[in-house]
Design goal:
Layout: H1 3-23, E1 71-77, E2 86-92, E3 106-110, H2 119-122, H3 125-135, E4 142-146, H4 159-174, E5 184-189, H5 191-202, E6 209-213, H6 225-231, E7 239-245, H7 250-265, E8 271-275, H8 281-286, H9 288-297
Parallel strand pairs: 3-4, 3-5, 5-6, 6-7, 7-8
Antiparallel strand pairs: 1-2, 2-4
Length: about 300
């Protein structure tokens, strides 16, 4: 073998040894890789099953009938208890005809002696009712104003009986008036207040409140008031409003005060007000907003 061939073989051996070291290095200590926790992907909800966004309800546009105001209806209530039918003036609130399925509370109001069923509207009750109902400060309600054709007391007159047995059933059958006690109230001015008190106590299961404006108690009713009050369950006592003018007739102020004393003795709650004036329509007109506030507050 020649020298050149030996040198070539030696060179090839060295070259192969170097390649083996390059491809198979001696393993060193392992490199640590930090552990990473990957949260699971949330389940996707199909779009068709997602909860829809709430629909924005637009502010309701006031009904056109609000601007048309209320209605005043004249009617005649047939009566077998009185010599003739009962003339009655009925206030129907705005939008009454547009909601035939609705029923309303009813306020029964009696006029004073020497007047008729037009007294209450003339003093402003219906105009104030319109304002409050349209403004949303009072619920819609009906006002029933019958004519009192005779001025005898309850011992000699069947008017009170006719109110209970004929007038109220007629109104509830022919107009959209609620027929429950909580929806009925009664009030009156002067002699009308005498009837309101008589019916409010004797028929307490019929009326939930009574307004007694410039009240003279019927002479024949006065001895019975303590017994009537004691017969009403405490939790069924009607709401009571009493007022008179500061310079009202002395007999009226004395009569109303005696009734208030009976209420105080029994710790029966009531509302009492007085203001400058005398026993005239200008006084009652000045108090009409307070009267109406009392009535509607019992329906709120």
């Amino acid at each position: 073998m020649t020298y050149q061939r030996l040198s070539l073989i030696f060179f090839l051996i060295v070259l192969l040894s170097a390649c083996g070291q390059a491809t198979n290095p001696t393993p060193g200590p392992p490199t640590l890789t930090p552990t990473i926790t990957v949260p699971p992907l949330p389940s996707l909800t199909p779009w068709s099953t997602k909860t829809p966004r709430p629909t924005r309800t637009p502010t309701p546009t006031p009904l056109a009938c609000w601007g048309m105001g209320s209605q005043m209806v004249e009617d005649q209530v047939p009566s077998d208890l009185l010599p003739e039918s009962i003339p009655v003036l009925i206030y129907l609130p705005p939008c009454y005809d547009q909601f035939p399925e609705s029923n309303y509370p009813a306020l029964y109001l009696f006029h004073g002696q020497g007047f008729d069923q037009t007294q209450w509207p003339r003093l402003g009750i219906t105009a104030l009712a319109d304002e409050r109902i349209v403004a949303g400060t009072a619920p819609s309600f009906i006002i029933v104003m019958p004519t009192i054709s005779d001025w005898d007391g309850p011992l000699d007159s069947t008017f009170g009986q006719a109110v209970i047995e004929e007038l109220i059933p007629y109104i509830e059958a022919n107009y959209h008036a609620n027929s429950d006690r909580a929806s009925r109230q009664v009030g009156g001015i002067s002699r009308g207040a005498s009837w309101a008190l008589h019916l409010g106590l004797n028929e307490w299961e019929t009326f939930s409140a009574m307004g007694l404006h410039s009240l003279p108690v019927f002479y024949e009713d006065a001895p019975n008031l303590p017994y009537w009050l004691d017969a009403i369950p405490t939790n069924q006592m009607p709401a009571i409003y009493v007022d008179f003018a500061e310079s009202d007739q002395s007999a009226i102020r004395r009569s109303a005060r005696q009734f208030l004393d009976l209420l105080d003795e029994r710790e029966i709650p009531y509302t009492f007000t007085t203001a400058p004036g005398t026993h005239v329509e200008s006084y009652w007109a000045s108090q009409m907003d307070s009267y109406l506030q009392f009535y509607v507050s019992n329906w709120e």
